[in-house]
Amino acid sequence: QVQLVESGGGLVQAGDSLRLSCEDSRRRFITFPMGWFRQPPGKEREFVAAINWNGGSTFYADSVKGRFTISREHAQYTMSLQMNSLKPEDTAVYYCAAQYEYGLGPKPSREDMVDQKNYHYWGQGTQVTVSS
Fold it and tell me: 34 near 50, Cβ under 8 Å?
């Protein structure tokens, strides 16, 4: 069973940076496509960023493109989300998630990576609060 644990959330001011990490505590996710989602207060959970299992492709929501960077560090069995130029509207609970092993193929479409229904393993979430 894959277990994902997020860390790195906190309270920051607008314009600051944060780096979120997602650790696979059982060290099995190397070949799993993974992503970050977030749920703002009172809203539905939404896609933020994703990376395929070999790290060759990344995908971003328009709202974070150019400010957030997703990466995976296979040697440490982690995935990260570097968040720069944070805005109050980035306030949310951030979740990391993984698809099944090898996901939907070596070259997944953006639709494949954005759709929450393709993610089957989820962390508990970490709170990010950005004050104005």
Answer: yes
* Number of Cβ atoms within 10 Å of the Cβ of 9: 18
Confidence (pLDDT) at 2: 61
* C-alpha to C-alpha distance for 64 and 97, rounded to whole angstroms: 18
Q: Is 93 helix (H, G, I), strand (E, B) or coil?
A: strand
Contact predicate 18/129, CB 8 Å: no
DSSP 29: -
Return the exposure string of 47-61: e unless at least 16 CB atoms fall within 10 Å of the residue's CB, then b.
Answer: bbbbbbbebebbbbb
Average pLDDT in the 90-107 region?
A: 91
Give the integer Cα–Cα distance in Å for 123 and 60. 19
